[in-house]
Amino acid sequence: MTTVKLASALPADHGLTAVATSLIDDPEQMHIVLAIVKTKKLTTDVESGDVSPTAHIKRIEVVGSDKDEAKRLLQIMRRAHERRTGNTVLPLDLEDDLRTALGEAIDPNTGEIG
To answer: Is the model's pTM score more than 0.70?
Structure first.
């Protein structure tokens, strides 16, 4: 499996400033963000020929504060996870992270936000 790295620099105009106070005052709180990434560089291991990309965040915005928006984001994340892994159920740790980030109860049977 190819290892993907993430460049540490953010674009000058990024949406994380919207939650800067929360990141300081409540460092344990999770936030849902939507990011657009692009390849910044490729690193080639000369011996194996393996190529590893480093992604650069081109745009990032905080999302999910609205309950309806949060429900839609949860559906999108579930579908993306299903396509990537073939699993129809989110792993418990991801489900817990989403529950924490949304600040809402997620019904484990229906996936609905309560």
So the answer is: no
